[in-house]
Design brief:
Shape: globular
Protein name: Metallophosphoesterase family protein
InterPro entries: Ap4A_hydrolase (IPR050126), Calcineurin-like_PHP_lpxH (IPR024654), Metallo-depent_PP-like (IPR029052), Pesterase_MJ0912 (IPR011152)
Pfam families: Metallophos_2
Number of helices: 8
Domain Calcineurin-like phosphoesterase: 1-211
CATH class: Alpha Beta
Mean pLDDT: 95
Largest sheet: 6 strands, mixed
Family: Belongs to the metallophosphoesterase superfamily. YfcE family.
Radius of gyration: 17 Å
Distance between the termini: 33 Å
Number of domains: 1
């Protein structure tokens, strides 16, 4: 099975459509969406409906912190920009789409693989994996050999030896990486809809469950259109400018 791993779509129709088209060209056989389908972007209804369509064909999907926020009255934990986007987003979604989000799981286990949005130790608390120590904590919290997670918008790969020594590196797009069974791995594909590493191109990854080969991709898309739609929707301008710079 060739699994496409897409996370932090953030209601960005242009980026999501480009990644789906690219994944189809790679002959992907199954999809996993690791949360944050919505928030920030101007096309939440289209993105959620598209994910729903893929789920009906066997795709996996997780709850993200922006997803759960539309179900909560108290959004004090979010910054004002994110909160404004979530309040606008809820009004764009149909009751069926909100019900779909409400039923999303926080974790999915697939044999020796774990899918989470934020981390393995407390996936519903949204703490970040922003370094080796947090990556180690997440890997120790799971028996899975390979964990895939989102939340961090920068593509990163962590590895831990049998003795517990942990390291990280930033992957090069389109170079296959064999994930040795002699190590444990934590894979962060980067964000489809809101890259934050200085490159506006969308991020996602594929994983071959037979060969254990992981490949990261960067997919250029019409970020100028996506940015302009955010402004037309009356959302905070910072959300629009972020798509132009990838920061």
């Amino acid at each position: 099975m060739l699994l496409a791993l897409m996370t932090d779509l953030h209601a960005n129709r242009e980026a999501f459509a480009a990644c789906l088209a690219h994944a189809e060209q790679q002959n992907v056989t199954r999809y996993a969406f690791l949360g944050d389908l919505i928030g920030y972007g101007a096309d939440p209804a289209w993105v959620v409906q598209t994910v729903m369509d893929y789920v009906s064909k066997g795709a996996y999907v997780l709850m993200g912190n922006h997803d759960v926020a539309i179900l909560q009255e108290d959004k004090q934990g979010m910054n004002p920009t994110a909160r404004q986007a979530i309040e606008w987003t809820r009004a764009q979604l149909s009751p069926a789409q909100i019900d779909f989000i409400a039923k999303l799981p926080y974790r999915i286990e697939l044999q020796d693989l774990l899918l989470v949005h934020a981390n393995a130790w407390a996936p519903e608390k949204w703490e970040y994996i922003d370094g080796v120590m947090e990556a180690m904590r997440s890997m120790h919290a799971s028996k899975a050999a390979i964990t895939f997670c989102g939340h961090m918008h920068i593509p990163t790969l962590y590895h831990m030896t049998l003795t517990g020594k942990t390291g990280e590196f930033l992957p090069t797009p389109e170079n296959g990486i064999p994930l040795s069974k002699q190590r444990r791995w934590l894979v962060i594909p980067g964000s489809v809809g809101q890259p934050r590493d200085g490159n506006p191109a969308a991020c996602y990854a594929t994983f071959d469950t037979e060969t254990l080969e992981l490949t990261y991709y960067r997919v250029p898309y019409d970020h100028e259109t996506a940015s302009a739609k955010i402004l037309r929707a009356g959302l905070p301008p910072a959300l629009a400018s972020r798509l132009l710079t990838g920061n």
